From TrEMBL, chain A:
<feature type="transmembrane region" description="Helical">
    <location>
        <begin position="67"/>
        <end position="85"/>
    </location>
</feature>
<dbReference type="InterPro" id="IPR050736">
    <property type="entry name" value="Sensor_HK_Regulatory"/>
</dbReference>
<dbReference type="InterPro" id="IPR036890">
    <property type="entry name" value="HATPase_C_sf"/>
</dbReference>
<dbReference type="InterPro" id="IPR038377">
    <property type="entry name" value="Na/Glc_symporter_sf"/>
</dbReference>
<feature type="transmembrane region" description="Helical">
    <location>
        <begin position="6"/>
        <end position="24"/>
    </location>
</feature>
<dbReference type="InterPro" id="IPR005467">
    <property type="entry name" value="His_kinase_dom"/>
</dbReference>
<dbReference type="InterPro" id="IPR018212">
    <property type="entry name" value="Na/solute_symporter_CS"/>
</dbReference>
<dbReference type="GO" id="GO:0016020">
    <property type="term" value="C:membrane"/>
</dbReference>
<dbReference type="InterPro" id="IPR036097">
    <property type="entry name" value="HisK_dim/P_sf"/>
</dbReference>
Automatic annotation (TrEMBL), chain B:
<keyword id="KW-0472">Membrane</keyword>
<feature type="transmembrane region" description="Helical">
    <location>
        <begin position="12"/>
        <end position="31"/>
    </location>
</feature>
<feature type="transmembrane region" description="Helical">
    <location>
        <begin position="37"/>
        <end position="60"/>
    </location>
</feature>
<keyword id="KW-0812">Transmembrane</keyword>
<protein>
    <recommendedName>
        <fullName>DUF3311 domain-containing protein</fullName>
    </recommendedName>
</protein>
<keyword id="KW-1133">Transmembrane helix</keyword>
């Protein structure tokens, strides 16, 4: 086939592709979007099927039978779960204006620029080889039709004649045209998506055409074809799976790996999530996409079998799709197949490059530029051009990088193996992504540790040994390990040689990545920003729309925000966006100073253009963060925290109630005691009142009935009546006194010298003492004893003590000693008698009301209230009244009252100088 | 059918799919016999595949709405 014809066909096809993309963009401009359609959406997802599918599957099937299928069965199975899983990712991304998978991961973990950057690097080193493989497929397919089969390898072609290079350049041009036409806040590329959907139709149609031709043109249906193959033992072996457990292990691992790949490949994320215009489209796509996969795989094995039958061996099995119709002289069909392969390769390259360039720009270059203060990037007037420029350069660099990788690698590995290496690389996003949308506790540190560890092991166990295959490293690196360390053999880490390379890598990376993600998350506390984002991601379905601003977003002048938007989005888009905000909130005009909600709105808009991490940094340059009140965070941050706050409140109330109940119980107890005491008091008082009354009444009756009383007797009776009446009066007075003390605790306190009080009391009782011939021994200190006391009350106390002493001075030689001791803290007055004393078990009881009346009956028994009153008065003075006694040797009562602090200048207080 | 119910059925279908198209059930289909000249393994895998797609389409299209409910 002539080179010119092929070039002509390829050019014609690419022109059609440009036209389709242009048409798609035009329709979008006029508001009649083609993309808002579940079938276009489902077809665009078929970008999953690359040259690997188109050419590589047949090659792989020709050597291993149906082992090419797990790569498509995995996506089929996981697509069943899309309605839950992918819809969640799509919803989150729409709310947060996510622009790429790196952006998603960075945004989830507190809008971390570092994490997004690392994810970008992982995506680039994982996907570039995959792009290289597509370029290689284009040049190989070109070569297969233009040069004899057994000619020289691609690496020896001079660079200016290498079709792969030209393919790279044309694809760069296409991607720049349709992937970076304008900077959109949604980061959607309608023309591009329409073109991709178109390419999906072309590649499916081409593959089915070849399959139908082989099955029904060359043979008499599938049964006939397979039976022809069954005649050859090596072909018949392809009809069953190798019975060893290892083959099945590969099957399972690859199924799992492709599930992760279809979720997390940057190009799949681009078409499934970023380009999604309506999440309801997922409902159809979740079964249309698997149907597409089924159809494109239907004829893989038949074509492989036919190819083997026609060519004898599997050397050129990767090109059977072209070579079988070519060998049969079907030029038109061959050209169609060539176009199909071209479409498979170009669609992947275009979408992958767009996704990578967005990532490189938003999550790598812009954050770095923002960090260089000299550039002052955020203050520049028009940044739309700068950002688009960065993306265009990134597209060219990625494609050239892919091309150089292709040249450097030579033609050693097959299409499938490089593809699987890329799959294993993007599978490293799985823990951070899945954990990120289902587990709130995942932290930035955990995600970072897991990702870095996973990628390090991936790099060591998959791409590095390829360098040995290509001769860049000694072969002993694989067979004996670096420096002869067997445990570090890249295909058998720690001697694990059971698994094939890809499952081996997958096992170790998932172990390290997942393990470190969980361990690192549990070992660190998420920051407030991380917690907020975690809640927005994990609970996205609980909220009707994008959530309100976080309380710490702060406020900013609207003029500054407008300027920022204009810089990054251009004037028109910025003004339109603010207009939308005004309409939505029904505002006449925007306020001068934006509140949190508007700041958040602008930040989300910017995130759509330059990524979440960069947007946060840019907004940070104008927004004035509000000082964070912990109460606000508690309230708004997390519903669970609100619940916690409520339960804490309940807890507190409960404790208060319990304390109150306890107090009530104690009060009730005390009331009961007091009530009991009152009963006792009343009965005692009645008893006390009755004794003299009985005496008076008895005498009065005698006097009344007996008429012949002698004057002596009358006198004696009258004296008794008088004494008993006095006793009654005293008793009533004391009861009143006691009641008064209980009712009015107010003392008439003044600063006095305690010695004067003692002297007063002594002079009052001295006649009584002399009358009873009681020796009085008084010892007073020389210096003043100032105290703040109620003089009259204190005198009453001392009088009570002195008269008690006199009352119980029953000794033959009675004497009473009054001693006084003053210190700076307390003053003590003691009254000691040498009477009968008080038994030890009675020493407290005598201070209780009426105790004395029952237990100590003496000739001059009193009311029994005196000591109770005395002690109460002393207590009111914050003092103590105590007794010490040895029965038979007398008792000593001691009054202690706090001293008034000595005055610095005694002269200023006339009272204090009294002595 | 509400979203949660749809998701329960989809998860069940996913589990069934993983079992039907995974080890060790694959060894049952991996036999040298043919159906109309086509190897049994090949036929069975594609039939199961098609049934899975049909079943998930049937479940998904009974889902109401699509804007509420959680994953």
């Amino acid at each position: 086939m002539s080179t010119t014809l092929l070039l002509l066909v390829a050019t014609a096809y690419l022109s059609i592709l440009f036209a389709v993309a242009y048409y798609g963009d035009e329709r979008a401009e006029h508001g009649r979007s083609l993309v808002n359609n579940p079938y276009i959406y489902a077809l665009s997802l078929a970008v999953y099927c690359t040259a690997w599918t188109f050419y590589g599957s047949v090659g792989y099937a020709a050597t291993t039978g149906i082992n090419f299928l797990p790569i498509y069965i995995g996506p089929t199975l996981i697509a069943i779960l899309w309605w839950g899983l992918m819809r969640k990712i799509v919803r989150i991304s729409a709310h947060q204006r996510i622009t790429s998978i790196a952006d998603f991961i960075g945004a989830r973990y507190g809008k971390s620029a570092l994490l997004a950057g690392v994810a970008t690097v992982v995506a680039v080193i994982g996907v570039v080889p995959y792009i290289a493989v597509q370029l290689k497929a284009i040049s190989t397919s070109f070569g297969a039709l233009t040069t004899p089969l057994d000619s020289t390898a691609a690496t020896e072609i001079p660079i200016w004649r290498d079709t792969a290079l030209y393919a790279a350049l044309v694809l760069a041009a296409f991607t720049i045209l349709f992937g970076t036409r304008h900077l959109d806040v949604t980061e959607r590329h309608e023309g591009l998506v329409v073109a991709i959907a178109f390419e999906s139709v072309v590649k499916l149609a081409a593959f089915l055409a070849v399959g139908l031709f082989v099955t029904f043109g060359l043979y008499d249906g599938l049964g006939d074809l397979f039976q022809h193959g069954a005649a050859v033992p090596s072909i018949e072996a392809l009809y069953t799976v190798d019975a060893s457990a290892g083959a099945f292990a590969d099957w399972m691992w690859l199924t799992g790996l492709s599930m992760l790949a279809v979720l997390f490949l940057p190009r799949q994320f681009q078409v499934t999530v970023v380009e999604n215009v309506n999440e309801a489209h997922l409902r159809k796509a979740a079964w249309l996409f698997p149907l597409y996969l089924l159809l494109i795989n239907l004829f893989v094995l038949p074509i492989a079998v036919a190819g083997l039958l026609h060519h004898g061996d599997a050397t050129h099995a990767d090109m059977f799709v072209l070579l079988v119709p070519f060998g049969e002289g079907q030029t038109a069909l061959t050209l169609f197949a060539f176009i199909g392969g071209l479409s498979a390769a170009t669609s992947m390259v275009i979408v992958a490059t767009t996704a990578l360039s967005t990532m490189i720009c938003n999550d790598l270059v812009v954050p770095l530029l923002l960090r260089i203060p000299q550039l002052n990037l955020a203050q520049r007037s028009r940044l739309t051009g700068v950002i688009l420029g960065i993306r265009r350069v990134a597209i060219v660099v990625v494609l050239l990088f892919g091309y150089l990788y292709l040249r450097g690698l030579g033609d050693a590995p097959s299409l499938v193996s490089i593809g699987l290496i890329s799959f294993a690389a993007v599978a490293q996003f799985a823990p951070a992504m899945l954990g990120g949308i289902f587990w709130k506790r995942g932290t930035r540190t955990g995600a970072l540790l897991g990702l870095v560890a996973g990628v390090a092991i991936w790099g060591y166990t998959l791409p590095l040994p390829l360098l040995a295959d290509s001769g860049w490293l000694p072969a002993s690196f694989i067979t004996e390990g670096p420096f002869g360390i067997g445990a570090l053999r890249p295909y058998a880490l720690l001697g694990m040689s059971e698994l094939n390379p890809v499952p081996h890598t997958l096992f170790w990376t998932m172990l390290a990545n997942g393990g470190l993600y969980v361990a690192g998350s549990l070992a660190t506390r998420p920051s407030i920003m991380e917690q907020s984002q975690a809640s927005r991601f994990v609970d996205v379905f609980r909220h009707a729309g994008p959530q309100g601003a976080a309380p710490w977003t702060g406020s900013a002048p609207v003029a500054d925000l407008r300027a920022l938007l204009r810089r990054f989005l251009g004037w028109r888009a910025a003004d339109r966006a603010l207009q939308r905000y005004r309409t939505r909130h029904d505002l006449k005009a925007l306020p001068e100073r934006a509140d949190e909600e508007l700041v958040d709105y602008v930040e989300t808009l910017l995130a759509g253009a330059i990524g979440a991490a960069s947007a946060k940094a840019v907004i940070g340059s104008v927004a004035q963060a509000k000082p964070l009140h912990i109460g606000e965070v508690m309230d708004i941050l997390d519903e669970t925290q609100q619940v916690m706050a409520y339960s804490r409140e309940l807890e507190r109330k409960k404790a208060e109630l319990e304390a109150a109940t306890e107090e009530l119980r104690a009060a009730n107890q005390k009331l009961k005691e007091v009530d009991h005491l009152k009963d006792e008091f009343v009965s005692t008082v009645s008893h006390e009142l009755r004794t003299p009354l009985t005496a008076i009444r008895a005498i009065s009756e005698i006097m009344h009935q007996t008429t012949d009383l002698s004057p002596e007797q009358q006198r004696s009776f009258a004296t008794t009546i008088m004494r008993e009446t006095e006793r009654l009066t005293r008793l009533v007075n004391q009861v009143l006194d006691l009641e008064r003390l209980d009712a009015t605790p107010v003392l008439d306190r003044a600063l006095v010298d305690l010695r004067d009080v003692v002297r007063n009391a002594l002079s009052a009782v001295r006649p009584q003492f002399e009358q009873q011939a009681i020796a009085l021994n008084v010892t007073l200190p020389n210096r003043p004893c100032p105290a703040r006391i109620d003089r009259d009350r204190m005198t009453q106390v001392l009088l009570n003590l002195l008269s008690n002493a006199a009352k119980y001075s029953t000794d033959a030689d009675p004497h009473v000693a009054v001693r006084m001791a003053c210190t700076n803290d307390t003053h003590a007055v003691s009254v000691a008698d040498n009477g009968p004393g008080i038994p030890e078990d009675q020493q407290e009881a005598i201070f209780e009301k009426f105790r004395q009346a029952r237990n100590r009956v003496g000739p001059q028994a009193g009311s029994g209230l005196g000591l109770a009153i005395a002690r109460q008065i002393v207590h009111r003075h914050e003092g103590t009244l105590t007794v010490e006694s040895t029965p038979g040797e007398g008792a000593t009562f001691t009054v202690q009252v706090p001293a008034h602090p000595p005055e610095p200048v005694p002269a200023t207080d006339p009272e204090a100088s009294v002595s | 059918m509400d979203t949660l119910e749809v998701q329960r059925r989809l998860v069940a279908l996913f589990v069934v799919g993983c079992l039907m198209l995974g080890y060790p059930l694959l060894t049952v289909y991996s036999v040298p016999q043919t159906i109309g000249g086509i190897p049994v393994l090949y036929v069975v895998i594609f039939v199961i595949w098609a049934v899975l797609i049909g079943a998930s389409a049937a479940i998904l299209h009974r889902a109401t709405g699509g804007d509420s409910g959680g994953a």
